Amino acid sequence: MSTDGRRSVLVTGCSSGIGECVARGLAGRGWRVFATARRAADVERLNALQQPGLESLCLDLDDPDSVAAAVEAVLVRTGGRLDALFNNGAYGQPGAVEDLRREVLRAQFETNLFGWVDLTNRVLPVMRRQGHGRIVQNSSILGLVALPFRGAYNASKFALEGLTDTLRLELRGTGIHVSLIEPGPIRSRFRANAMEHFRRNIDVASSPFRDHYAGVAERLAHEGDAAPFTLPPEAVLRKVIHALESRRPRTRYYVTVPTHLLARLRRVLPDRMLDALLASIGGGGRR
Question: Which of 15, 178, 182, 259 sits between 20 and 30 A of 161, alpha carbons compared?
Fold first, then answer.
């Protein structure tokens, strides 16, 4: 616990959606929450809420200096302690694999993976000294199965799953528990952000998938048209609460019907049958 007796947690990606929901929800349960965001305007908005237990500061996962400064600022405020970390800040980069330039793929990994590992490795020594801690990684259904035209995001989440499983094994017996949360469709600004990266980084006119990309753009442009089985971010909050507060946190938490269903089908279906199903869900891809 921090110097004032409250449990403390650092949350990334709190500008909207899951991150903001989890930060505010945990503050409402008595946690001292350090809600971080990349843009100063989002930090100011969160601080302006004046919600008891909620403090916001800047953290840019792409910038190691920003990560280091945020961790240092949190530890100064808590007297050198931190009970939990919820890694959440991420974005989706749509596009066929053959349309991903090296720098575009690298940028996806900088935010969705490398920044998370950097941040986690900076708080682990604190948790080791304490003899306890909770690390919760917000992965995705796309860390379990791949969908076409989401290769960069698929890859970042598959890599996150592998590193998190490894970390959990390496931390056995330390009192530090590591959990993965694997949501399917959740109401957020994810589509709008993905559309921005799609327009910026994919050369549609030169792609063999240019006809298909018209449908991709149409889907991303209709953020308000929720996909089937979409849940509010509170569904993720409930799993985070269990991962942080349960005496025996689970290693994995599935969220939404599609995650439960596809996780089971991945175990029982032959690869060719699963491929056909995923291609249908993800928009085909025959070119």
Answer: 15
